[in-house]
Design goal:
By secondary structure, the chain is an all-alpha fold. Helix 3 packs across helix 4. The chain contains 8 helices and no strands.
Length: 152
Amino acid sequence: MSRGLRLLLVSALLSIAYLLPAQSNEQIDAILSEEVATVGSAAYIALSASDIINDDTDPALAVTLAKEAGWLDSERDADQPASFGEFAFLMMQAREVNGGVMYRVFPGPRYAAREFVYQGWSPENRGPASAMSGQFLIRVAGNFLDMTEATR
């Protein structure tokens, strides 16, 4: 493993440990091991980072709560692959982040993903429909929380 990759992984894990202290180790380990992050994992991270749910909540319940709030399509299931746009939209809605002009006019996964890339919360340019790993989901959540907490 290269030194840069190791440093990035350590910094991401430290950010997670600092920003999401109440989350259960088992749930975080499960998310980190996902090659393709699920809707349940995305909803769990977004809602728990906003203190809407606690750390022992089942990801399926997080999905149900996100659907009830209108943040997820009613057809989505917890075990389906999550898109980058869905996760970005969940984070922005749960944390009540306004976003740019297009997001304010057309709030949804498309412009939430664009906002994440524009603000630098995502370390790479991704489209709203792209899949992501559990590690990427956690790293982006840490970046988002770091940067939005600094402005509050």
